[in-house]
Amino acid sequence: MSKTATLLMLISLTLSSARGGQVSGVVVAAQGGEPLASVEMTLGSVNDENGRQRGPIRGMLNSGQAVRTALDGRFVFDNVEPGEYVLGATKAGYEAGGRIARRVVLTDSQPTARLSLSLRRSPSIEGRVLDADGDPVAEARVELRAWAMSETRRTLRAVRAARTDDRGQYRLDSLPPGAYYVYLNPQTLGMRQGGVLYETSGVYYPQGATPAEGAQVRLGWDRTLEGVDLVAGEPGGAVAAGTALHEDGTPCPECSVVVFGVDGLPAASTRMADTGRFAIYGLPSGEYAFTARGPRGSGLAIEKVYLPDERPVEMTLRLAPGQQVSGFVSIENAEEDGELPLDRATLRLLPADPMAGGIPTGARVSADGTFTIEQAPQGLYRALAFGLPANGYVRRVLYGGVELEGGMVRVTPNGPITGLQLVASFDGGAVQGTAVESKGGEPAPPDGIAILLPQQTEGASDTPSMAGYQSGDFRFGGVAPGEYLLFSVPRSFAWDWSDPALLAELRRRATKVKVKAGETVTAEAPYLPGP
Amino acid sequence: MPSKRAVTRLAILGLAFALAAPAADSISGRVWSQEGDQRKPLAKALVTLVQEGRRPDPVMARSDAEGKWRIAGPLEGRYFVSAARAGYYVALADGTARSSVLVDCAATCGPVDFELVRGGAVNGIVEDDQGEPLQNVAIALHPEGEDDEEDSPSARGGFGRGPSRFGRDGGPGRSWGGRDDERTDDLGRFRIAGLQPGRYRISADGNRRPGAVRYELAGAPTVEVEAGVEIEVRVAMQRRVTPSGISVSGVVQGVDLSGGRRMLFVSEMRAPASPETPRFGRRSAPVKEDGSFEVSGLAPARYYFSLYRDGGRGPMTQIALGPVDVRGDMTGLALAPAPTVSIAGRFELDSDGEARGLAAQLEPLDGSPSLALNAGRMDRDFAERAPAGVFRVRARSREWFLSGVELNGEYVDPERTPIHSDTTELVIQLSDRFARIEGRVRAPSPELASPRYLVTLTAEPPEGRPEAQPTDQNGGFVFERITPGEYRICARPYDASRDAPCAIERRFPVEAGAEIELGLTLQP
């Protein structure tokens, strides 16, 4: 190397050390490529002073002011010390209101970084809500609903909601791509003493009373659906009234009533009059489960009722006391007289079917593995254990020596449940790895969620596990042996795991992982930004 | 003639309230619409009845095609009665915005008539100084001449329904006009309708937007509203800029500056009592071998100057130079090492475990830079030098946390540890008895699936960054390694802004080694 080159390198190193580095770049729209102005940029260190991973980056550097892009989409961070950073970009109306992030590494030898980022326009939905006369309906609540998996069942949940203005117009914006139903909530009038009157019925766009009768709307990036108009339905003709009573037969004015339809979704709710009476007018005729809950979980009543049109139905909801549920957690292949590692374990009973009642409940597991839930309200539950050691999972649930399918336990008013057995295994595997853009590709954007979707497992769990990550590294512990699909998604997502088209896509793009007992699998989680 | 359905409902009404108090009465009236000189019945207006002094538990009725409405009794005591329809305001004789009427049903209970007038509407777009739309800006219209500090309505007239319209006594609440919380959408758009004629001042609050860039209104925009007329406005906001631009140059003296890297760090002095406040105006600049430096871009403030140097090898060491009031450009500033005292002592750990890397920070309360104390490799002792002062002692790692501070044989407040002279007996006590908090966010009804929530745990008073955990599929969350103290826990919908109000919030104490279970049930 010549003396001149050495001198130039030294000067360069000196300057870079003195001035610090620079992170700069441009932000453009993913569709069209035009520069985006006023994008808020953040640059934060990945690791803190102790080498630990930081949380979401909200910091700002040097100037003390957050950086945003100029009209030409350009941004600059000056005087950046060498290190590993996460560069974030957010803009209203883009990336579902979230942040996209890129990893940036500055070193003494490479003190500058120049990046080009593209933001995707978030989908949105606009429309009007009219009544049967064609007049606008103001203050109507329009929900965007999507299927979601809970520990116990697949259910619809509201992802976003908006209210109509005085012209009946609504807009749902900054949405994550996904498959949705647009749902118009029924409108009610409050009535005296525990009564509720439905003025309209709920409508799934375009005109369905149920999700099956509605149309699923698929939204991708950069798509605005206009004219998603809804007409408020006529209220139904069913009328139900009744009384909620305590176990001893006295009225229960402090009870609350929730009514569920056959789809498992709440159809109506009301408080009680001072007399313990309630009345609900305007439900569509059909089969419902009327539940009354006592104060502070003091009991549950459930009544399945068919409501015809125009003929009032009277009912009595008498609270049934909860039943004691007791049992033990056993460990497969545990050493005799060995200490059970259950000091942090908790048993949970989670309702599996709203039509069958149930209120979430649980109890600590003692050091000897036993548990007792004193008051479990009647209902159908899934029994789950939390707080097991990192390699632990529940392999099966037994009652009276019989394996309960899916770990489902039915609590009835007839008597306590004793001897419920959860068989735990501590040979669970682990899955760890890094989120990547695609298999064998570049690291995925930071700040996402890794998902492990069971295909065939030996354990009782068949719901996806999720692990959030900041810089891309994730780990799942206590994974039951079996086959899984592994992938990663942005923090904002609304996917229906049971959608056959999505599952086919996942099978094609996700990493297939086979977990064996006690083994740790290292794998890449391909990043799926949206359907 | 009532329909079959209506008859059915009346019949069941009797069925439902057979046990209710006797002496049923009713209240009724009509709703009129005033358009020019014509007065017409107004259908589909919402009439609301709230008993005075009771929690807002409104009873409602709609006006029919003839503008008539009726609410069945029994009615005892006094009631607030109001009428509303989207896009209209209530015309009251006294010109007030309180669109409810207090009716004493002990004497006579109605009829109560309302007159509604189609109001003006303001459609607007909020933009930043680059012409880009600003989302989630809270917009309100204030009638000109009204005192901003009072609970004046955000707009006269307007529409809306729901408990937020009512105060604690059941009377009209604070947000009486427009929508309670009018916010711009992703296109920067907003609409406020049902306005009484008049001139309004527009206020825009961008502080609850997510993100770090702050905006403020450019100027003082106003709008003139006419009844029944729609107007379009553009509201300009500008970036709030911290004043900056002061340059300071001078020389560092009394330090061996030969070889290696030399950097001057200038940090604004803020008391550590406000750790969440970002430190504005932090700057750095190189120092030449002759000691000269120039640092620019400072805002007027008091700064602490420190020198970092490595002498050509090894880690950078910090040399405190002292505080300087910077109010304008300065030249020829002479800086020398500040007088220091010896701070020596040891770490004590309340368990037998082998702890490595024991360390603590001494944060001077005057806002000058912190001093790091590190245990030696072979023992748990430390020895450093720093300017005398009052310090806040901080120590925290994955393995331990600060449990007490002893100075010269006496316990002292870790928040205010005075070190004014050389000391060899500073004992920093550490503990590994972390607490654990496990909980679950529950849906208001057992059958509703728990949506995803982000649960944040914040020490009270706030200390550092709050911990945040997303709930799992069952609404469960766990916080490990929690230090003793008072805490506030807050659950927000996962996608909500971090500035959004908590869906549920709890405050509770945490003791060393505690295992706490929390059930957070959302309100329906």
The major beta sheet of chain A can be summarized as: 5 strands, antiparallel
Question: What's the pLDDT, averaged over the residues of chain B?
Answer: 77
* Envelope shape of chain B: elongated
Classify the secondary structure makeup of chain B into a structural class. Answer: mainly beta
Compute the average pLDDT of chain A. Answer: 82
Uncertain regions spanning at least 5 consecutive residues of chain B: 1-24, 93-98, 147-180, 272-280
Distance between the termini of chain B: 38 Å
Helix content of chain A: under 10%
Helix content of chain B: under 10%
Measured distance between first and last alpha carbons of chain A: 54 Å
Give the topology, please.
The complex is a heterodimer of chains A (about 525) and B (about 525).
Chain A: H1 3-19, E1 21-29, E2 40-45, E3 67-68, E4 74-80, E5 83-90, E6 100-106, E7 112-119, E8 124-130, E9 141-149, E10 154-163, E11 169-172, E12 178-184, E13 188-190, E14 195-198, E15 203-204, E16 217-219, E17 224-225, E18 230-231, E19 238-245, E20 256-261, E21 266-271, E22 277-283, E23 286-293, E24 300-307, E25 313-318, E26 323-331, E27 346-351, E28 361-364, E29 370-376, E30 379-386, E31 393-399, E32 402-403, E33 408-411, E34 417-425, E35 429-436, E36 448-457, E37 465-469, E38 473-479, E39 482-490, H2 500-509, E40 511-515, E41 520-526
Chain B: H1 4-16, E1 26-35, E2 38-41, E3 46-51, E4 59-62, E5 68-72, E6 78-84, E7 88-90, E8 100-104, E9 114-118, E10 120-127, E11 138-143, E12 189-195, E13 198-205, E14 215-217, E15 222-225, E16 230-239, E17 246-252, E18 262-268, E19 283-286, E20 292-298, E21 301-309, E22 317-326, E23 330-335, E24 341-349, E25 359-364, E26 371-374, E27 381-386, E28 389-394, E29 401-407, E30 410-412, E31 417-419, E32 423-431, E33 435-442, E34 453-460, E35 467-470, E36 476-482, E37 485-493, E38 504-510, E39 515-521
Parallel strand pairs in B: 1-9, 10-16, 17-23, 24-32, 33-39
Antiparallel strand pairs in B: 1-2, 1-5, 3-4, 3-6, 6-8, 7-9, 10-12, 11-13, 13-15, 14-16, 17-20, 18-19, 18-21, 21-22, 24-27, 25-26, 25-28, 28-31, 29-30, 29-32, 33-36, 34-35, 34-37, 37-38
